[in-house]
Design brief:
about 425 residues; alpha/beta; Aspartate Aminotransferase, domain 1; Aspartate Aminotransferase, domain 2; 16 helices; EC 2.8.1.7; Cys_dSase_SufS; transferase; Aminotrans_V_PyrdxlP_BS
């Protein structure tokens, strides 16, 4: 089945110089099937209009496309459409939660928002493997409110060290924010155990699901998280679109941080009343074509089956791990058993950027750098790594081409 899917992605026919393209950078952004590209173009050709505003036929069609996308997203991650709030990316979604809590901590939002207020003596807990998008906002919230920022460490195998979970996440903890799947290590974290601890002490759970939603079945209701963020472009959809998911009663109580048109009920010269979610968090003109295209991407993923995607990636991960392990002078960052098809590594004597350039010369696209996770790289004693990340359109041949080229890197630079 997965070999057949490759024909749906026109970019895979691109050649890099004289080499075919092996795209192993889906952790950064995924490629798009032709049906998603067609939906994006078709929207502008036949349906383009402002949503929720006009009474003419185009406006009605545009609004239907926009709201049908919300329905599709809810079907992908669980809950109801009203729990899906569109943002420009997952980073914005996570910031909306942190900044909303910051506003609540400084008296905004009224009585309903008081539940989110933090103060000195409270704590916020993250993990050492977080993407900066799920670390920096919480650093800022701690600095603004006087709360203490703590974190769960990472083991040598690339898993969360939960030995001191009950001590780190204690009665002072108001927020536990963590990634479902590491964007560097590929590790799938134990959401159930972390949520169970948060529930025991009454903390809010914020889940970064950017690397899980595209690669595996995810249901935020079953996971019992309070807020979650994910993005379209990592799940076959377009760029410029993310989503904030939350429990309805919490979304309606969280003070908005982006204000303006389309998210209000009443405005006077003195004050404003805000709409409930999701419109509460959707000020201004929305990315309608992107939402329509993402709905098509969701339909594509649903037809393939995310359980099948995860099984396929686990097989490719094993090919990568076994193959890299046989190449001298290369050190894998974390080797957790429960993982998606993402593998990061360090090459002795060769900077990650040079590794990436050599692989690119062979038509193999990978990510190099710190992957917006500098603390995690420091944990493993490196400043940068090379990352290969697979998706449903990759196959064993991609992995084999990558491994063959990787084995040539150190000899090419004269350090073998």
């Amino acid at each position: 089945m997965f070999s057949r899917l490759r024909g749906d992605f026109p970019i895979l026919d691109v050649r890099v110089g004289e080499s075919p393209l092996s795209y192993l950078d889906s952790g950064a952004t995924s490629q798009k099937p032709q049906c998603v590209i067609d939906t994006f173009v078709e929207y502008f050709q036949q349906r383009n209009a402002a949503v929720h505003r006009g009474a003419h036929s185009l406006a009605v069609e545009a609004t239907d496309a926009f709201e049908n996308g919300r329905i599709a997203a809810a079907g992908l991650v669980g809950g109801t459409p009203e729990q899906v709030c569109w943002t420009k990316n997952a980073t914005e979604a996570l910031n909306i939660v942190a900044l909303g809590m910051d506003r609540a901590s400084h008296g905004f939002g009224g009585d309903d928002a008081e539940r989110f207020a933090l103060a000195p003596g409270d704590s916020i807990v993250v993990t050492e493997m977080e993407h900066h998008a799920n670390l920096v906002p919480w650093q800022q919230l701690a600095a603004s409110t006087g709360a203490q920022l703590r974190w769960l460490p990472v083991t040598d195998s690339g898993e969360l060290d939960l030995t001191d979970l009950d001590t780190i996440v204690d009665e002072s903890t108001k927020v536990l924010a963590f990634t479902h799947v590491s964007n560097v290590l590929g590790t799938i974290n134990p959401v159930d155990r972390l949520v169970q601890r948060a529930r025991a002490i009454g903390a809010y759970v914020v889940l970064d699901a950017c690397q899980s939603v595209p690669h595996m079945p995810v249901d935020f209701v079953d996971l019992d998280v309070d807020f979650a963020a994910f993005s379209a472009h990592k799940a076959l959809g377009p760029t410029g679109l993310g989503a904030l998911w939350g429990k309805s009663e919490l979304l309606d109580a969280l003070p908005p941080v982006l204000t303006g048109g389309s998210m209000i009920t009443t405005v006077t010269m003195e004050e404003t009343e805000f709409m409930p979610a999701p419109q509460r968090f959707e000020a201004g003109t929305q990315p309608v074509a992107e939402v329509a295209a993402f709905a098509t991407a969701i339909g594509y993923l649903t037809e393939v089956g995310l359980d099948n995607v995860l099984e396929h990636e686990k097989e490719l991960a094993r090919v990568l791990l076994d193959g890299i392990g046989q190449i001298p002078g290369i050190h894998i960052l974390g080797e957790a058993e429960d993982r998606i098809g993402t593998v990061a590594f360090d090459v002795d004597g060769v900077h990650a950027h040079d590794v990436g350039q050599y692989l690119d010369s062979q038509g193999i696209a990978v990510r190099v750098g710190h992957h917006c996770a500098q603390p995690l790289h420091r944990r493993f004693g490196v400043t940068a790594s090379t990352r290969a990340s697979t998706y449903l359109y990759n196959n064993v041949e991609d992995c084999t081409r990558f491994l063959t080229a990787l084995a040539e890197v150190r000899p090419f630079f004269g350090v073998a």
